[in-house]
Amino acid sequence: MDYQTRLNSDITKEIDYLASLRKQRMVADLRTELVYGSLERLADMICNTVTDWSHPCPVLPLSSVQQWHKAREIVLADYEDFGHDAWDFARHYMKTELSFGYACYKDNIA
Predict the structure, then answer these.
(1) How many separate domains does the chain show?
(2) Is the four-CA dihedral 57, 96, 64, 28 of positive or negative sign?
(3) Which residues, other chains included, contact 107 with Cβ-Cβ below 8 Å and sequence gap of 6+?
(4) Segment 10-34, tens digit of pLDDT
(5) Minimal CA–CA distance to 50: which of 14, 15, 7, 88?
(6) In the beta sheet, which residues pair with residue 59?
(7) How far apart are CA 21 and CA 34, in angstroms?
(8) Sorted alphabetically, which keywords does the UniProt record give (predicted)?
(9) Which residue range forms the structural domain that includes residue 95?
(10) How many helices and strands in the chain, by DSSP H and E?
(11) In angstroms, how far is the first alpha carbon of the chain from the final one?
């Protein structure tokens, strides 16, 4: 299995895990921590699918954008008590990672 195929499979598994957390019995604080961690891992994986870092808004494959949107739908629908805050965290984390990746590319650091 090549890198891109494995990465897409890992992204799908992470989204399934994110959705499954709502059904598991656990303390609310633990669920919150696991959702935030899952979103952070997902953002990192999606950043690894960037196909062109030469633009200030790096180019992502459509499949990655669709997966990110699916994660958003899950978080906002399934985690009403903290979903909006979790998604804001994930969105800002992704933005920071993409900005950093572009800066590294632009300055020829990577």
Answers:
(1) 1
(2) negative
(3) none
(4) 999 999 999 999 999 999 999 999 9
(5) 7
(6) 52
(7) 8
(8) Plasmid
(9) 3-106
(10) 4, 0
(11) 25
